[in-house]
Amino acid sequence: MTPVNESLSIIIPAYNEASRLPGTLERILSWLDEYGIDGEIIVSDDGSTDETVALARRWMEKDGRVLVLPAEHNRGKGAAVRRGVEASTRAWILFSDADLSTPIEEFALLAEKMTSGFDIAIGSRDVGSSRIEEHQPWYREAMGRTFNRIVQTVAIAGIKDTQCGFKLFTASAAKGCFEHMTIEGFAFDVEILFIARRLGYRIAEVGIRWINDDRSTVHPVRDAFSMFVDVVRIRFRQRRLER
């Protein structure tokens, strides 16, 4: 059964992903072929210093459905996703982490929500239907729970997992949200969901299968502090908008 009747842009933000990217592209392209989906894969580089861009370009030469967006400098995951959204050409836009911690096959669960009228469907590791097959180290999980409590209190109540890197938008919702985005680091997900609510888009949180990959690029201290500061910035922005 085809999981979607809409055309699909898949954005992969990539920072030093040379070791994982070939396998990820091969898997997603095979999945598109299996279901006959009209899709494109946008590898949005974030200033990688390894062979990420060169590898992506070789795949682009082999398969016209692959597009690579190189970047001279590292600006943050949010900046990379935004560039992918701006370059996308399909009716739906999915962004997925390069490690496929959420398998691409889980897309069908998000698509089901979209076809029932939602504008945005986000993968979640913290709702009852989620299936965690390989957990993060205990300290990362503890940090994630703490961060989510802060997000719930300061910025977005009611969404249990803002940080899962598997989110699906209609093209109009994605472009409408990302044009207002100001945060380019790892907390961009929080700001995008905050903006989506302000704009009246319907958001569904969907439990997904998730398998941790230990090769995370998120620094447990430096990036956690930066994300906290960014969430506070979102709160101040909200107050300005409410005046």
Characterise this structure:
The protein is α/β, with parallel strands linked by helices. 42% of the residues lie in helices and 19% in strands. It has eight helices and nine strands. A seven-stranded mixed β-sheet has the order 3-2-1-4-7-5-8. A two-stranded parallel ribbon has the order 6-9. Strand 1 (8-14), helix 1 (21-35) and strand 2 (39-45) form a beta-alpha-beta unit. The model has no long low-confidence stretch (mean pLDDT 87).
Layout: helices, strands, pairs:
Blueprint: E1 8-14, H1 21-35, E2 39-45, H2 52-62, E3 66-69, H3 77-87, E4 92-96, H4 107-115, E5 120-124, E6 131-134, H5 138-154, E7 166-170, H6 171-178, H7 188-198, E8 203-207, E9 209-211, H8 222-242
Parallel strand pairs: 1-2, 1-4, 2-3, 5-8, 6-9
Antiparallel strand pairs: 4-7, 5-7
Helix pairs in contact: 5-8, 6-7
Shape: globular
Strand order of the largest sheet: 3-2-1-4-7-5-8
Distance between the termini: 49 Å
Number of helices: 8
What does this entry show, briefly?
This protein has helices at 21-35, 52-62, 77-87, 107-115, 138-154, 171-178, 188-198, 222-242, and strands at residues 8-14, 39-45, 66-69, 92-96, 120-124, 131-134, 166-170, 203-207, 209-211. It has 243 residues and is an alpha/beta fold.
Using brief descriptors, characterize the structure shown.
243 residues, alpha/beta, two-stranded parallel sheet, 8 helices
